[in-house]
Amino acid sequence: MSLEIKDLEKIQSTFQQAHLDYQLELVDGKITIMGLSDYLSEEIIARLITFLNMWVLPRRIGRVTGSSAGFRLPDGNLRGPDVSFVSASRLQNSPRSFAQLLPDLMVEVKSSTDRIKPIVEKIHRFLELGTTVGILIDPDRQTLTIYRTTNSEAIELTDTDILTIPELFPGWELPINELWPPVFEDNQTE
After folding, report:
1. Alpha carbon of 144 to those of 39, 137, 156: distances in Å?
2. Contact at 8 Å (CB) between 149 and 127?
3. Over the stretch 92-128, which tens digit does the pLDDT of each residue have?
4. Rounded distance, CA 111 to CA 73, Å?
C-alpha cells in the first residue's frame, strides 16, 4: 500500500501525541520513523543553525530551520533535513503547513546509529530535485562534505578548512572546527 502526504498528516497527529520524541517522513509511499539524535549530533545541528542565523537574520535573506520543518517534495515525498535554508525570495512568509518547495540548502548530520549511504542518497535526491547545496557532517570523522548541483564531485572539508557557500551566503565563512562542541575543563577551585 502506497501512502500519500495527506495520509501521513492524518496519522501524524495521533502518532506524535503518543510518541512525542519521534518524527515521521514519507519516502516513496512508506512512512519512515525518525528517532532521537545522539547528543553530540544534535549539538552540532544547534551550533550550525546558530551560526547560519547569525548571518541570515540581520541580512533578512531567508529562513533557517531544523529537522522538524517538513518539505513537500516534487516527487511526492515529505522529508525534513537536519538543517535547511530557504531564501527570502522563494519563501516570503512561513507557511502554517509543510513547505511546498525545496530548500536551497539542506544539511544532514550523521548520528551514531546512522549509515552514510542512506544519508548520501537523501542528499543526492534533494539535489536531483533542485536543492542547490547539500552538506553531510560526519562527527565520527570530523568531516564536512559539500555536494552541489553545479559540480558532480563532492568536496570534503576537515578541521583546518573553512566552509563557504558563496552561491547562497556571499561573504559568510565558518571554520569547520567551530562545528564541534567544546570540551569543558574542570574549573573547580580549591
Report:
1. 18, 4, 6
2. yes
3. 988 888 889 999 999 999 998 889 999 999 999 999 9
4. 24
Q: How far apart are CA 182 and CA 190, in angstroms?
A: 24
Q: Which residue type does 54 have?
A: M
Residue 113's alpha-carbon distances to 2, 46, 129, 174, in angstroms, are: 27, 19, 27, 27
Distance separating alpha carbons of residues 105 and 123, to the nearest angstrom: 10
**Residues whose CB falls within 8 Å of the CB of residue 18, separated by 6 or more in sequence, listed in order:** none
- What is d(CA 134, CA 106) in angstroms, rounded to the nearest whole number? 5
| Residue tagged 548541483 (cell numbers) | 149
Q: What are phi and psi of 170, to 5 degrees?
A: -60, 125
Does residue 107 contact residue 174 with C-beta atoms inside 8 Å? no
Task: Note if the pTM is more than 0.90.
Answer: no
Half-sphere exposure for 87 (CA within 13 Å, toward CB): 10
Look at 24-33, 61-70, 87-96, 112-121 and tell me which has the smallest mean pLDDT: 24-33
